[in-house]
Structures are given as C-alpha cells and as structure tokens.
From TrEMBL:
It comes from the Bacteria. Signal peptide: none annotated. This is Acetyl esterase. GO terms for biological process: triglyceride catabolic process. It comes from Martelella mediterranea. InterPro entries: AB_hydrolase_3, AB_hydrolase_fold, Lipase_GDXG_HIS_AS. One of its GO terms (molecular function) is sterol ester esterase activity. Residues 102-310 form the Alpha/beta hydrolase fold-3 domain. Belongs to the 'GDXG' lipolytic enzyme family.
C-alpha cells in the first residue's frame, strides 16, 4: 500500500510497487538534479579505499545535517564493545518529559556513515516521538565484517537493558530502529535475541532495509541502475560485510531467511520502503510474510522517492511524513503498554 498506511493495512495483500509508484516525484527530480551538480566530481565510494569512501560519505551527508533541530540535551558517552573496544554513543533527549528510548542504527552498507551522517534524522525522530534516541558508531566492514557490527549492536542493547551510564533511569517503551543496513542490523539483532531467548524491544522501526541477498528480485531488476543506490553497489556492500557468501544463509545476516516461528515472535514492526530502490522488494517480501502469518504490522511504500529519502528531511516532505509515521507507531505501542 502507498502513503499513510495504518496498523494492519498490510494484510490487504498489496506489498509491491505499482507502475505509478515508480515515477519520480517532482521534488525528488529536483533533489536528484541538485545532487548531480553538487557531486559531479565525487566518485563512487564503494570503489575507493575504505578510508576514502568513508570520507566521501561524510562529505556527501553534510548537506542533510545543517540547521539541526534543537534538543533539550545531548550526552556523549561510551559503551564497552564485545571486542574490548569502546563504542562511541550519543543520547539525544528532545524534552524534559521525554519518555521511552529508540536505539537508532545508522545505515551505510555496513561500511560507511556514522552518528554524524544521521544526526538530523535521529533528532527529528526523537522530537516526533518525544523519546530519547540513542545513536552509536559500530565497527564497519570490510575491515570488520560480520559479525562485528551486529556484536556491537548487541553490546549497545545490553547496555540499554542494564541502564549503563547515561542510559540509567530511562523508562517507557524501547525500540530498535535503523535505516538500510542499519535496519538489517536492528532486525538481525531481534532475531538473534529470539534465538538466544533474550529480551526484545517493545517495537521495531525499520526504514528501507536490506533483508536478503536476492539480486534477482523485482526491485533489483527495476532499479538496477538507480538513481542513487544501484544493484552493483549493493553487491559490493554485501561483499564487504560477508565476503564468505555461505554465511548469508543465516537469518542474522539475511533476515528474510528466518523461519516463520522466529518471525512470529518479533515485536510489532513499522516498515517502510522507497518505491525507486533496489531494496524495495526486500521490505515488500518481509511485509508479505508477516501478513501471511496473521500479524498486523504497519507497512508503508513511499512512491516516487529513492533509497535513503529520510536523510533528505530538510527538503523532502515525504521524509518528514515517514519520520512522523514511525514516531506514531512508537507512540501507539507506548499507549498500549500504558493501558495493559
């Protein structure tokens, strides 16, 4: 379904994009023209050294992280990682009466981006939900392939459960959220928690995630050449994260390979997808499987926009709508928790 879906609408059975969804919005056309002009001399970060590629990704995202929305407070701290290294964290508090916590895992193909590249988007989500939002810098591929990033996410989640440091005293609902590869890590962590019998979040907020390595899906064919993310780039990202392709059979790497029993145990999910995105079918297939199991998760397909559109919050209305929608899903779970 497209635009503004509500909880349970995914069970109507419409998950994939329709022809009209694949036409770029006029606003998206203008943004892409701007990016083409601003990045005319920039290379493909997936074809650079990791250091060069990350520098390029940081530069490219500066434009989305100007004029930051104001917060009540912001706290920088560290959490001990599973490998003994310190994981840099940032806790964003939108108001004095903020309630609940959203752990936000940034995207970037498991190889690029950081707390800084996604700060504006995280602040917007915090304000919309009036909840604390925690961001952090996990270890990146290819130097640190699977399971390094996922292990760091698990260390952060354990810190949340234990109320470590700046996280002490935070009450209310807890969510795991992420965009793109960050959505993969958030969902994979939930599935690993299920397998290990450990504590799950109250909800998951997953934005245009990568959930399988099926490069022949409809959207990988539709959007093989972009605009923006391409099939070739995604294949390189997968090779960075899991150079041993045999590992990709694991649901902790490819969540769509999880069995039905595990999917049934997931908390309520908010899922969205961009129509013009090689990853679109990943979310459509996930929404379809969840619906077939009788679950009532929220799924919204945003027509006319490309992968990563929520980063474009300062200039794209659909990005702001998606943030508000995700916040509403979080608040609905919070409301249900208060009445039970």
């Amino acid at each position: 379904m497209t635009g503004g879906a509500t909880w349970g609408e995914a069970d109507k059975g419409v998950f994939e994009a329709q022809d009209g969804d694949l036409c770029l919005l006029p606003e998206m056309v203008a943004i892409l023209a701007r990016l083409a002009a601003e990045d005319a001399d920039a290379g493909d970060p997936t074809l650079m050294t990791p250091e060069e590629g990350r520098a390029q990704a940081e530069r490219a995202n500066v434009r989305w992280n100007r004029e930051m929305p104001a917060l009540f407070s912001e706290t920088a701290f560290e959490v001990a990682g599973s490998a003994g290294s310190a994981i840099a964290c940032r806790l964003m508090t939108p108001s004095a009466d903020a309630d609940g916590l959203i752990v936000f895992v940034h995207g970037g193909g498991w190889a690029f981006c950081s707390m800084a590249t996604h700060e504006h988007a995280a602040r917007v989500l915090a304000i919309a939900a009036n909840a604390h939002v925690l961001t952090f810098d996990y270890r990146l591929a290819p130097e640190h392939p699977y399971p390094a990033g996922l292990d760091d996410c698990a260390a952060i989640w354990n810190a949340v459960l234990e109320g470590q440091g700046a996280l002490a005293g935070i009450t209310g609902p807890r969510a795991l959220a992420g965009d793109s590869a960050g959505a993969n890590l958030a969902l994979a962590l939930m599935l690993r928690q299920i397998a290990e019998g450990d504590v799950l979040p109250d909800t998951g907020l997953l934005f245009y995630g990568v959930y399988d390595d099926d490069f022949q899906s409809r959207s990988y064919i539709d959007c093989a050449e972009g605009p923006g993310l391409t099939r070739a780039k995604m294949m390189r990202y997968w090779d960075f994260y899991t150079p041993d392709k045999s590992l990709r059979k694991s649901p902790f790497i490819s969540p769509l390979k999880a069995n039905d029993a595990a999917l049934l145990k997931l908390p309520p999910l908010y899922l969205n997808a961009a129509a013009i995105d090689p990853l679109r079918s990943d979310t459509a297939r996930l929404a379809g499987r969840l619906s077939a199991l009788g679950r009532r998760d929220q799924y919204t397909l945003y027509p006319g926009v490309v992968h990563g559109f929520m980063q474009m919050n300062p200039v794209l209305a659909e990005a702001r709508t998606a943030a508000e929608e995700a916040a509403s899903a979080f608040l609905e779970v919070a409301g249900k928790m208060k009445t039970t």
